[in-house]
Design brief:
Chain B: GO terms for molecular function: 2 iron, 2 sulfur cluster binding; metal ion binding. Chain B: This is Glutaredoxin domain-containing protein. Chain B: Pfam families: Glutaredoxin. Chain B: Keywords: 2Fe-2S, Iron, Iron-sulfur, Metal-binding, Redox-active center. The complex is a heterodimer of chains A (98) and B (181). Chain A is α+β, with helices and mostly antiparallel strands and 98 residues long. Chain A has a single domain, classed as GMP Synthetase, Chain A, domain 3. Chain A is built from 4 helices and 3 strands. A 3-stranded mixed sheet of chain A has the order 1-2-3. Chain A starts with a helix and ends in an 18-residue tail after the last helix. Chain B is 52% helix and 9% strand. Chain B contains 7 helices and 4 strands; from the N terminus they run H-H-H-E-H-E-H-E-E-H-H. Chain B starts with 15 loop residues before the first helix and ends with a helix. The chains are: A alpha+beta (98), B alpha+beta (181). Chains A and B meet through helix 2 and strand 3 of A and strand 4 and helix 6 of B.
């Protein structure tokens, strides 16, 4: 029984359309506990609590079997990768290059 | 605390058994006389009665069913009332597994340590001691797991959010605002 990492990934991918997603099974194999890092446009303009609620809602079915879900990161693409990829709009003097 | 009042489940037994008895001969009659419109009419009638009787019959057993996670049945209006009083009983209320002195879960322990570190007075409520409270609170907060931290009567978050807010300094601000209000 339990939920697989793939199930969690599939649900999050289909519902939140993430640009970055990392699901780690922290249960030691029984599928009852996961850690999630997720970056999605859908989080734009939402507080952390709302973002977590979105993740919880996306995993509503899985949560019936998951004992613990740790959301390590729930960010917008901008927060996750602050350096603009090729948008000329921002003239920030960033020291990091892509 | 007001916890005691929600310990008594409201069990309302219904006459579901008798209605299912009524239902059987009806459907039997339908089979023997398929053309009679009266029989069809009678068939529909008992079915709807049976359904409405079945629902309240199933409900009382659900708070006791430990692994029932789906929403709807756990949060009665009375329970909602009690929870509202409970989350407002202190400026900071932590619903957790175990107690502040004996946390029964690592996530609960993390939040206890954070609150202790901030030197915040808080009320700890052990949700392992009351299954109705545990299920009802999931719905009330619209949050599937524990711990659940309430600040100023508002749901603040679970372990991850509390930890992140603690690290960013936001938690301290929110707590101070709530305590001073």
């Amino acid at each position: 029984m339990g939920v697989t990492k793939e199930q969690v990934e599939a649900s999050l991918t289909s519902k939140l359309n993430p640009v970055h997603l990392e699901v780690i099974d922290t249960s030691g194999g029984c599928g009852a506990s996961f850690a999630v890092e997720i970056v999605s446009e859908e989080f734009e303009g939402k507080r952390l609590l709302e973002r977590h609620r979105m993740v919880n809602a996306a995993l509503e079915e899985e949560m019936k079997e998951i004992h613990a879900l740790s959301i390590k990161k729930a960010q917008t693409p901008q927060q996750w990768n602050p350096t603009p990829q090729d948008s000329p709009t921002t003239a920030t003097t960033s020291t990091t290059d892509a | 605390m007001a916890l005691r009042s929600i310990k008594t489940p409201s069990v309302t037994p219904t006459a579901a058994v008798s209605s299912s008895v009524i239902n059987k001969p009806q459907s039997h009659r339908f089979v023997s006389k398929p053309s009679a419109s009266l029989a069809v009419h009678n068939l529909h009638q008992p079915i709807s009665i049976t359904r409405s009787n079945l629902l309240p019959k199933l409900k009382p057993s659900s708070p006791a069913a430990k692994f029932r996670c789906s929403a709807s049945a756990a949060l009665t209006p009375q329970l909602r009332d009690t929870l509202e009083k409970l989350v407002n009983s202190e400026k900071v209320v932590l619903f957790m597994k175990g107690t502040r002195d004996f946390p029964m879960c690592g996530f609960s322990n993390t939040v206890v340590q954070i609150l202790k570190n901030l030197n915040v007075p808080f009320e700890d409520v052990n949700i392992l001691e009351n299954e109705m409270l545990r299920q009802g609170l999931k719905e009330y907060s619209n949050w599937p797991t524990f711990p659940q931290l309430y600040i100023g009567g508002e749901f603040f978050g679970g372990c991850d959010i509390t930890l992140e807010a603690f690290q960013s300094g936001e938690l301290q601000e929110v707590v101070e605002r709530a305590i001073c209000s």
